[in-house]
Amino acid sequence: MSDMLKESIGTIGQALRDGKTTSVALAKEAVANHDRRGGALDAYKSRDANQFRAEAQAADAVLAAGIDFGPLQGIPVSVKDLYGVAGYQTFAGTPAALSEKWEMEGPVVETFRRALAPIFGKTHTVEFAFGGLGTNAHWGTPRNPWDAKAHRVPGGSSAGAGVSLCEGSALLALGSDTAGSVRVPASFTGNVGVKTSFGRWSVDGIVPLSPSLDTAGVLARTVSDAILAFAAIDPLTDLPGAALLAGFGDVGPADIHIGVCDHFFEDCDPGVAEGIKAAIDELAKAGARVSSIDLPEAAEADEIFLRGGLAAPEFAAFINGEMLDRKATLDPNVAARFDSMEAIPAVDYLIRRDRLQQLSASLEDRMADVDVVVGPTVPITPPVVDAVADLEGYRTHNMGALRNTRTANMLALSAVTIPVALDKAGMPVGFQIMAPLDEDERALAVALAFEGVLGTGRQRLGTPPLCKD
Fold this sequence. Notes:
Blueprint: H1 9-17, H2 23-41, E1 44-47, H3 49-64, E2 77-80, H4 107-114, E3 119-123, H5 161-167, E4 172-177, H6 183-189, E5 192-195, E6 215-220, H7 223-233, H8 241-248, E7 257-260, H9 272-285, E8 289-292, H10 296-306, H11 311-320, H12 332-335, H13 338-342, H14 346-366, E9 372-376, H15 391-402, H16 406-410, E10 414-422, E11 428-435, H17 440-454, H18 457-461
Parallel strand pairs: 2-3, 2-4, 7-8, 7-9
Antiparallel strand pairs: 1-3, 4-6, 5-6, 5-10, 9-11, 10-11
Helix pairs in contact: 2-3, 5-6, 7-8, 7-17, 10-14
C-alpha cells in the first residue's frame, strides 16, 4: 500500500500531475486507512464508497484531459454533518435526518466540488453543534486517537473532523466554528484549524447555531495545506494557492510582534501552559518580538458568554421555530440548559449584542501595537468520556474547552491553531494565533512562519498512537 497520503497536498498534487499517482489510487489508500484505523475511531456519520470512487475517477479523467482545477483536484476531503452535501442526508447530530432543504450544497462545499476534491464522507458533529467536547448521545463520540488506553473526547462540535485527518481518510476537513468548534477539535487531535472572520465565508448550506457568530472553517494537518484550502475557498483571495503560499513564505519570525496575554494562561491543565511558553521562547530565539498585552475585553466577553451570550437565545429561537419537532429528543446536556436559554429576555440579548460590538472595537484598537495575540488554544486536557457523562462534569469540561477559543467569536477576530506540544497526559496542545477581523491572511502567514520554526504537528508531536502502522 502506498503512503502517498502522508505527504503534503502540494507534493501529492505534483505527483498527480506528473502521473506518479492518481486520485483513484489516493481514494483506495484513504479507504484502506479508514478500514485499518477508523473502525475504532468512528469519525464518520455517513459514507458512500461508490460516490467517493466515482468522484476520484472524475478528477482523474478531467486531469488526463488537460484540465486543471487547482491544488485540491483529486484530494480526498471530509465534511462535517452540518453541511449540505448532494447524495447525503444531513442529520446535524440529531437522531433522524433533517428535511431535504438541508441537503442543498452551499458555496463552501460548492468550492470543493468545483475543485474536484472527492468527498470521503460526512463526519460526526455534536447535536446542532451546541457543545465543545465532541460528545453525541444519539450516535456516540468519536475516539481521540492520541490515547490508546482510554476513550477521550475529540473536541467539538466538529467532532469527527480532526479524527478523519489523523486516520488518513481525508487531507482536509470542513468544520464550523461558533465558539471554537474548528479550533478545539484541531487542538485536541494535533491538527491545524482555521477560524475565518465572521462573514468572510458564506454559511449558506450549513445548519445554523448562532447567526451572529457562526463561521465556516477548515482543519488540515499542516499550515501549508490549510493555506491551499483557504485560497481555494476564500471569495476575497484572488491568488492561486501556490502563489499565496509563496507570498506568506516571505514572512519570517523577525517580522512578527507577538502579544502574550495572561488571561489565556489561567487555569491550564499540567503541561499546557508550559508547552505554549516553550514554543514562544523558541520563536523569540528565532527573532520574533514578544510583549505582554492586557485584554480586559476578553474577560468581559467571557462574562457575557457565561450568561448565555448570543448563541444560547439564537439557538433557542431556531429550535422553537424551525426545529420544534426536534426539541423532545435533544441531547440531555443541551436539554438541561434549554429553560435558561429560553428565559433570556430580548432586551438582555440586544444589550449584549451592542456591548460586544463596543468591546470588539476596543479590542481592535488595543491590538494595534502587535501583529497577533497568542496563547493556548484550549487550556484543558481532552477528558475521558466517562468524566463528561453527567451534567456537572460535562458543563465544567465544556466551559473549560471553550474558554480561550470563544474570545475570537465573541469579539470578531480571525484565528488559527497549530499543534506545538504534548501535555502531561500525552495529549496535543494547540497554539492559538489571533488577528483582527478580516486579517485572515495575517493569521495564516504568521502561523506558517511559526510552523517553519517549530515544525509541523507530526514533526513535533509524532503520530497518534492509534494511527501508527
